[in-house]
Write a structure and sequence with these properties.
The complex is a heterotrimer of chains A (150), B (112) and C (491). By secondary structure, chain A is an all-alpha fold. In chain A, 67% of the residues lie in helices and 0% in strands. Chain A has one domain. Chain B is mostly helical. Chain B contains three helices and no strands. In chain B, helix 1 runs antiparallel to helix 2 and helix 2 packs antiparallel against helix 3. Chain B is elongated, with a radius of gyration of 20 Å. The termini of chain B are far apart. By secondary structure, chain C is mostly helical. Chain C has a domain of 342 residues. Chain C contains 19 helices and two strands. The longest helix of chain C is centred in the middle third of the chain and has 32 residues. Classes of the chains: A mainly alpha (150), B mainly alpha (112), C mainly alpha (491). Chains in contact: A-B, A-C, B-C. Chains B and C meet through helix 2 and helix 3 of B and helix 5, helix 6 and helix 9 of C.
Chain lengths: 150, 112, 491
């Protein structure tokens, strides 16, 4: 996994293998506690994208392409956006209005409260993370000498 | 009052950069600076005197809170400006590929 | 209610297209045309069945001071029909055009996002929601202008993007100041509190909104992005931009803000009339000297938007009727003219009119429909352009501004001159062109013929029976300053 011509030095690659999971943990914490503390879908999603970007920056683009399945990440992005709309349409089916809160609202200050807000936070967090990572991925793939299309 | 004036000064810095700089990347940065100054202005409008942050924590007494609505507006606005900046950077990369220069005064094929 | 479906149907199809489509664009075309057709049916149904009432829909069932409402009154019904009609014909047209450009399915996903943004701007009742949907539509428009991959398109898209981002920042400052003055974001509650505010604050915020939304609507000092963007974009996108985008994001938002929220202050009515008159004359003059076919049509778009602004600035019900009807008919014939220009570009490979010749026998449908569109935009009876311009000029004379009426007539003569130049050099030149690169298929011909027929038929909208049911509720919502407020808050 260590290709000395791509990416950064060996020290960065070894430390990244440990710290990237901490970044993922922090991102998941921000997303899940979105209805209790500041954060929520957007902020947590950006931190999750930073975890993927850390791998891409430390190991170089070609190694990361062999490692991660980019088509799968694009599919996850589209699926989570579609699921968000389906939650809204389920609101029409079950409650009568778009995006109505139809799950039981638990007691305040607990993790599983406030209806369908945690689920929407998770979907938004996943979508934002995948979007940011894929945008930087595509921009890093455009070399300066090509006069390419699209 | 001075805080509002400093927000306006930041906006003017962005406008100065947009008007006088010739590099593509500096134009994108100037637009980002203008966006940040507007976000600051929105948050400044939400301040009430001697108020606490608007989060209900367990076991604390709830006093006067600052207005939480502009904070949601600023969150949305940051994400929108992120999308705009990403699009501008992608267009700038394509422009450099086609025109082979970063100088905006040399990219003038359309006029009239 | 069917109100949230106007936003969810195109949004869902945009996400499903990016999920399902593979290498070929068969699924993308199927999904997007299904979505476009269903929205057209829904909007025509709601125009006929609604009879001028106002429908309110609470998102998530949060009631009014807290939540976001969707409002559909007469003006929103008319704009929804317009947007779905032009987008449906544009979708049918772009099937062959995009295949000619060797592109793939990503165009359809961006197109559906554009339609989502425009529908959201039309039916929302909340000011920041309007800003968010406007940004969605604008970002998709930036990406679609640059879709072809040539150097001029990127330059035009970069100019459009920088100016659009600047104007969105100005609008956001205006929204921030309005929120701090009235402490609410719903437009109807803002309309309640506006009479109690300092009038200088209204002038200041109105100036910011004029700069921000005026740049989206291409009013004369803020028009500089429009000729580049509309001439370099692919032809169906040019017709969408010039036909509906500058009207929905610019003119419709200004109607909502200046007439329904601010209550039509006199200073801004005068400013609208002055800027509209400048737009008519200057861009009419600029459009005659162009040799690029689409750039000529883009400058004449600025001129016609000047007509709409002059009609709005008069303030009397007759003037607003003329402005709204001109908005509707300009979308139809300007889209038709841009389709023709795109068909000519696809057949000959160039847009320069000095290199073209006679196309009457090579492209019969295109030349015939371009004749219909040209007659409609110049204001020849019995097409709809004649009726709308006549109503604006009569309203100007009745309101006691004969100078503006003379300027409007001069503008109409300048438009006729520009269209005659396009017909003479572009379609009926000297040399006969016999070989064309690609035949115009039946989708493009269908959309052109459909719009040409509509040019003729919508002139009938002025008949007394039909006008009462379609156009009068629109005028009533705009002119009566308190009605919007009471309708939204009374339920």
């Amino acid at each position: 996994m260590n290709n000395p011509k791509q990416g950064m030095t060996l020290i960065v690659k070894t430390v990244t293998r440990v710290t990237v999971w901490l970044i993922v943990l922090y991102g998941i914490y921000l997303i899940l506690h979105g209805h209790l503390t500041p954060g929520g879908g957007f902020g947590g999603g950006v931190i999750l994208a930073l975890a993927f970007l850390n791998i891409m920056l430390a190991y170089g683009r070609e190694t990361t392409q062999k490692w991660l399945n980019i088509k799968f990440l694009e599919d996850i992005e589209a699926v989570s956006a579609t699921l968000f709309l389906f939650m809204g349409l389920l609101g029409i089916a079950l409650g009568g209005h778009f995006l109505i809160n139809f799950l039981p609202k638990g007691s305040p200050h607990s993790l599983l409260s406030a209806g369908n807000i945690p689920i929407l936070n998770v979907l938004i967090g996943v979508k934002v993370a995948m979007s940011l990572f894929l945008v930087v991925w595509v921009l890093a793939g455009l070399h300066e000498e090509e006069g390419g299309q699209s | 009052m001075t805080l509002y004036l400093m927000c306006f000064a930041l906006f003017l810095v962005g406008v100065y950069g947009l008007l006088t700089k010739r590099d593509l990347i500096k134009l994108i940065l100037s637009i980002a600076i203008m966006g940040y100054s507007v976000n600051l202005l929105l948050i400044l409008f939400a301040y009430k005197k001697d108020a606490v942050f608007p989060i209900l924590l367990k076991g604390t007494v709830q006093g006067t809170m600052v207005d939480p609505l502009p904070q949601a507006l600023v969150l949305t606005s940051i994400v929108i400006e992120l999308g705009t900046t990403a699009l501008l950077v992608a267009l700038a990369i394509r422009l450099v590929q086609k025109f082979k220069t970063f100088d905006i005064t040399k990219i003038r094929r359309l006029f009239g | 209610m069917i109100l949230p479906y106007y936003i969810t149907i195109p949004l869902l199809s945009a996400f499903l297209i990016s999920l399902i489509a593979g290498k070929k664009d068969k699924w993308a075309i199927l999904l997007s045309t299904t979505a476009g057709a269903s929205m057209l049916i829904l909007s025509i149904y709601s125009l006929i069945a609604q009879n001028g009432e106002t429908f309110i829909y609470k998102m998530g069932f949060w009631s009014l001071p807290v939540g976001i409402v969707l409002v559909q009154d007469g003006l929103a019904c008319l704009m929804l029909v317009l947007v779905s009609l032009i987008s449906f014909t544009s979708l049918i047209y772009s099937v062959q055009y995009i295949r000619h450009m060797d592109r793939n399915w990503k165009y359809y996903a961006l197109f559906m996002l554009l339609v989502t943004g425009m529908n959201g701007v039309i039916i929302t009742g909340d000011l920041f929601n309007l800003f968010v949907f406007m940004e969605i539509a604008l970002l998709s428009a930036f990406a679609l202008v640059a879709y072809g991959g040539q150097a001029e398109e990127y330059e035009a898209a970069f100019k459009y993007a920088v100016m659009g981002a600047l104007s969105s920042t100005l609008v956001l400052i205006g929204i921030a100041i309005l929120y701090s003055a009235t402490s609410t974001l719903t437009m109807a509650k803002m309309a309640e509190k506006v009479p109690t505010l300092d009038p200088r604050l209204i002038y200041w915020v109105g100036g910011l909104f004029l700069a921000g939304f005026g740049l989206k609507a291409a009013i004369m000092p803020f028009h500089a992005w429009l000729p580049d963007a509309h001439s370099s974009a692919p032809a169906p996108i040019s017709s969408m931009l010039s036909g509906v985008l500058i009207k929905v994001l610019g003119i419709y938002a200004m109607i909502r803000l200046y007439f329904n929220v601010f209550g039509a202050p006199h200073l801004y009515m005068n400013v609208f009339m002055v800027l509209g008159a400048i737009s008519i004359i200057l861009s009419g003059l600029l459009s005659i000297v162009q040799w690029d076919m689409k750039r000529l049509l883009a400058y004449s778009s600025i001129s016609q938007i000047g007509y709409i602004l002059v009609g709005l600035g008069i303030g009397t019900p007759l003037g607003i009727l003329g402005a709204v009807f001109h908005l509707f008919s300009h979308a139809i014939f300007k889209s038709l003219l841009f389709y023709n220009a795109g068909a000519v570009e696809m057949a000959l490979g160039t847009r320069d009119m000095r290199k073209m010749g006679s196309l009457v026998h090579a492209l019969p449908v295109t030349s015939a429909t371009s004749l219909v569109g040209g007659l409609a935009i110049s204001g020849i009876p019995p097409f709809n352009g004649f009726i709308s311009k006549l109503i604006i000029i009569i309203a100007l004379i009745k309101a006691g501004a004969p100078v503006y009426a003379i300027l409007a007539v001069i503008g109409s003569i300048l438009t006729l001159g520009a269209i005659m130049k396009m017909q003479r050099f572009g379609f009926r030149g000297e040399t006969e062109i016999s070989k064309i690169s690609e035949k115009i298929g039946w989708p493009m011909q269908t959309s052109m013929v459909l719009l040409a027929l509509l040019c003729l038929l919508t002139g009938l909208m002025m008949l007394p029976g039909i006008r009462e049911s379609i156009l009068d509720p629109v005028v009533k919502v705009i002119v009566d300053h308190h009605q919007y407020m009471q309708l939204v808050l009374g339920r």
